[in-house]
Amino acid sequence: IDLRMSLRKKTVSGLLWTFGQQFSVQIITFATSVILARVLAPAEFGLIAMISLFMSLGHALMDTGLTSSLIRTQEADQKDYSTVFFINIVGSIIIYMILFFTAPAIAAFYEQPILVKIIRVYTFSFVIDAFVSIQRTRLTKSMNFKTEMTIQVPSIIIGGVLGITLAYLGWGVWSLICMYLFQSVLTAIQLWVVSDWKPDFKFYKDRYKYHLSFGWKMTASGLLETLYQNLYILIIGKAFSATHLGYYSRAFTLRQLPISNISKALNKVSYPMFSSINHDDKKLKTAYRKLMQQLLFWLCPILIFATVYAEPFIRFLLTEKWLPAVPYFQVLALAGIMYPLNFYNTNILKVKGRSDLHMRLQIIKKSYAIVGVLCLIPYGIMALLYLQLIISIVDFFINTYYSGKMISYPVGEQLTDILPIVGLSLLFGGVSWLLKDYLADNYQLHDLALLIVGGGFYFLSYLIFSNVIKLPAAADFKQLVLKA
């Protein structure tokens, strides 16, 4: 009983601090990005997006899934941490050198000569991040998100101020690069100062083999996911223009705001928590079920509302020059509803140690997705985005089939739990759409007023009705708040 109470207390505390971290970081980042979007041109954001594939691939290769293995290893010690630390350092240097020398070829592919310097400067962040990978992992493993928050927030604020200042001084795309690098450096310095862990400068071959046996499959899965997610950026940047890519990347970033705040915050707590109970399927199912319902309860209405009010939202925040991003954002927001559900279903495979099955499923899912993308290129960007929406739904059924068997939580039962939340969100989304058109036609409200009135009606109605029909997620949230 004491162990269960300790885990529950630790989980609730972790949730509160990680949500505090995510929301504070995202609010600061969001405010910074809005100011930068008003100063910089869409094409300058497009240049950064062009190299996001290589940044993501580099981070996936650098880690080789070893930190995930450390988190799920309940008795990890100094030998484990030191071995993974040096592997990450060596890996980051190798990857940086590869990108340094291939930068001209990447720039030639996009027909953007400036990318050579951008890649050679920006990708040095691999090496910086590698030096603090273990410190981050230890904080996550111990659910010490309070310390992580006190480190990350100052770095984001100071880096954001630097980026905005440089943008106003006319540095263009370099203001974004300097901001990102400065944030990485500040975070790394603080992690080394705060952490009591130091490497013992020894490499243990047996520990490397142990973590690699799990990690390489996670790396392969991560690479496939990264390639697929960035395939859109690659195609839009090459087949269309840097401006179109800027619209897409900004729409994607806005879509990720609620997902990053809610699902990623929950994942930082849930993965180590799930790993600690991975041998008890009943507990694992209960924990996952409550997590999934709670996640969807908040995320779904936010994304539906964002879809309905996309035009006034983007016009108010980013000005009219970004309005071409509206249809991109709307489709991406709808597809985003499925993202966390797919993510957490595959997380079950990870905590169960089935990285082999995780990798095979990634190969299957990304194979048909990539074929679909290549076939739809001639039909334009919107066709590619609608494909994302369809694939996210298909992936849900595949992921749920396998993870559901492991914890006795099949797809039918999951649908029974989530459809009331989705249905209620869509219901008030439809009503809000009618309200938006009525207010715009008859009162010609300013965008901010329209968002406040429409948002107030939508979320108040949603929360009241969810309590009236006694949605389990609403009841669980009240209980969590009262007992926290």
Kindly describe this structure.
The protein is mostly helical and 484 residues long. Helix content is 86%, strand content 0%. It is built from 21 helices and no strands. The protein has helices at residues 2-39, 42-50, 52-63, 66-72, 78-110, 115-122, 125-130, 133-141, 145-168, 173-194, 205-239, 242-276, 281-308, 310-318, 326-336, 339-351, 355-376, 381-407, 411-442, 447-468, 472-483. Helix 4 (66-72) packs parallel to helix 8. The mean pLDDT is 82.
Briefly summarize what is shown.
By secondary structure, the chain is mainly α.
Strand content: under 5%
Inertia-based shape: globular
Mean pLDDT: 82
**In DSSP terms, counting alpha (H) and pi (I) runs of 4 or more, how many helices?**
21
End-to-end CA span: 17 Å
Number of strands: 0
Quick one: biggest sheet? Answer: none
- What structural class do the secondary elements suggest? mainly alpha
Low-confidence stretches: none
Helicity level: over 70%
Q: Which series of helices and strands comes N to C?
A: HHHHHHHHHHHHHHHHHHHHH
What is the rounded Rg?
22 Å
Topology of this protein?
Blueprint: H1 2-39, H2 42-50, H3 52-63, H4 66-72, H5 78-110, H6 115-122, H7 125-130, H8 133-141, H9 145-168, H10 173-194, H11 205-239, H12 242-276, H13 281-308, H14 310-318, H15 326-336, H16 339-351, H17 355-376, H18 381-407, H19 411-442, H20 447-468, H21 472-483
